[in-house]
């Protein structure tokens, strides 16, 4: 991976829409930590740079999610050139996964990858995610699965990642975790939140030992249809804006 060292990004250095993308992404990192989905300095979330479809913003490899600031984020191009990394570098597996998905799907502007315990547990379940609650049903028709092939640095896995994701929005990674994608930061967070809640409910339900109650397929289809109609292009915006206000009350430094 090629790197180009520059000073830390500042709001005066860039267009308004890139700075806005940085602030939202930094907020998403803080929220990921707040909800317990982070894993030390590992895992990664990216956002495509507005006006630069060949570039995305991602975390420098070494900064904790709960300390992420807009100016900390590294801009990475599809050829591997990293700008503004502040001496940390970029995680190789993070670059590989995110560059593959962004390149394959022009409609994707945000990619989340994490290994929360319950999500990883459900990814390992032979049946994967089950429609045991409303949160599971919301995205039930846009979930796919990818078999584990080792740490994501091998280019031979590129085509299988692209094929397995297809046009879906959630890809459960067997023996690993998940990749959640979306057209916006709020939409991606919305899917990640509902998935994590659904996986928690599934793990708790199956732990009871009894055969779980499952709704009829017609009910699942009805929930999917209703959710699709109600969500629209602003999926997740109301709750994400509310959560940004919460972050502002707790610690607004993510905006720096």
TrEMBL record:
GO terms for molecular function: actin filament binding. Residues 23-203 form the Class II aldolase/adducin N-terminal domain. InterPro entries: Aldolase-II_Adducin_sf, Aldolase_II/adducin_N, Aldolase_II/adducin_N_sf. Transmembrane segments: none annotated. GO terms for cellular component: cytoskeleton. Belongs to the aldolase class II family. This is Class II aldolase/adducin family protein. It comes from Henriciella mobilis.
């Amino acid at each position: 991976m090629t790197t180009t060292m520059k000073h830390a990004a500042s709001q005066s250095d860039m267009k308004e829409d890139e700075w806005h993308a940085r602030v939202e992404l930094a907020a998403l990192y803080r929220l990921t930590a707040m909800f317990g989905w982070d894993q030390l300095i590992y895992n990664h979330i990216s956002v495509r740079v507005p006006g630069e479809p060949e570039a995305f913003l991602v975390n420098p490899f070494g900064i904790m999610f709960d300390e992420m600031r807009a100016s900390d984020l590294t801009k990475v191009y599809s050829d591997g050139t990293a700008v503004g990394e502040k001496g940390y570098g970029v995680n190789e597996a993070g670059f590989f996964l995110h560059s593959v998905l962004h390149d394959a799907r022009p409609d994707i502007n945000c990619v989340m990858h994490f290994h929360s315990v319950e999500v990883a547990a459900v990814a390992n379940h032979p049946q994967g995610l089950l429609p045991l609650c409303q949160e599971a049903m919301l995205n039930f028709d846009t979930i796919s699965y990818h078999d584990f092939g080792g740490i994501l640095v091998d280019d031979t896995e590129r085509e299988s990642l692209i094929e397995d994701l297809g046009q879906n929005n959630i890809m459960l990674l067997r023996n690993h975790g998940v990749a959640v994608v979306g057209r916006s930061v709020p939409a991606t967070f919305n899917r990640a939140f509902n998935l994590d809640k659904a996986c928690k409910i599934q793990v708790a339900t199956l732990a009871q030992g009894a055969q779980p109650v499952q709704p009829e397929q017609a009910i699942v289809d009805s929930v999917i249809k209703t959710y699709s109609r109600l969500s629209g292009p602003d999926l997740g915006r109301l709750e994400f804006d509310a959560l940004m206000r919460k972050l502002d009350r707790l610690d607004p430094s993510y905006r720096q």
